[in-house]
């Protein structure tokens, strides 16, 4: 929140036209910030920020962050939230070199911007840094082993590099950095073509086709509603804790239960069928959020039922084709 009579603080959100970034922009505007969103719409959508077109405290800078220099953003900046990165497997595997370029050059540019303005810097990192072997409960001090050459390395190694770079700016330049390791987040404006099981259920529910549960359905997911994830990022930015800190839901929910919830919300005609699971199906992954709870006073508040109800209602209302 901005104090009475204080000059408007200025936040820069890279990737602000994406799913998470657009909700972050909304929350910052609501708490009195002036917001500059830097996005090249690689995976973001104009529809995500169109409602801010007439908002005088919102500026959209349609730029590739890799090519952004100091002069592109004049004036003071209080906080830089760095979210620009392909987040869905369908995107980051499409052009792995581009994925690594945004994590390297893009993160360098975002860090240099924060450094030149003595701003707080918040990196939106990911649970993927724990590696594919990270099934189970992930804790910040237990980063798993990853294989940089297994074909998925472009994503998790690029995010690990971004974390290392952020840490280097902290230790070398005393930059006030923070790292959030975000877990599976969902809500209005989420991508429905990102390959995640919940996205598929929502797409199927909207299309009126059966919800396909990869057998046996006992495998679990942790689902954090987007408003809760945004609250976690704001709490992290507001303090001085450098992280990394997990932001996600610690509650495991079975894939079958998720399908049942979606089916119940979708209506009486919704059907569930079981299908063969993919060869490398994740069995379980969820965060330990002890650090976030202790240091930020943060934990998710939205139940899966309420979050899914709001999400499906939004997709039905907007009738946007996402698949
Ligand atoms: P998203 O794809 O919706 O948003 C990413 C945004 O970055 C898009 O608007 C895209 O256009 C923009 N972008 C990409 N390359 C860019 C470039 N070179 N210059 C400028 N803008 C660029 O993804 P999201 O789900 O909102 O994720 C945002 C961040 O949160 C990512 O860093 C992601 O790794 C992290 N994260 C998200 C989740 C999740 O469940 N959604 C989980 C873990 C981590």
UniProtKB/TrEMBL annotation:
Signal sequence coordinates: none
Subcellular locations according to the entry: Golgi apparatus membrane; Golgi apparatus, Golgi stack membrane
GO molecular function list: NAD+ binding; UDP-glucuronate decarboxylase activity
Membrane topology: Single-pass type II membrane protein
Cofactor(s), names only, from the UniProt record: NAD(+)
Primary residence: Golgi
Pfam family name, one: Epimerase
Coiled-coil features, chain-numbered ranges: none
Domain NAD-dependent epimerase/dehydratase: 12-248
Keyword field: Decarboxylase, Glycoprotein, Golgi apparatus, Lyase, Membrane, NAD, Signal-anchor, Transmembrane, Transmembrane helix
Any GO BP: D-xylose metabolic process
A GO CC annotation given for this chain: cytoplasm
Protein name: NAD-dependent epimerase/dehydratase family protein
Organism: Jiangella aurantiaca
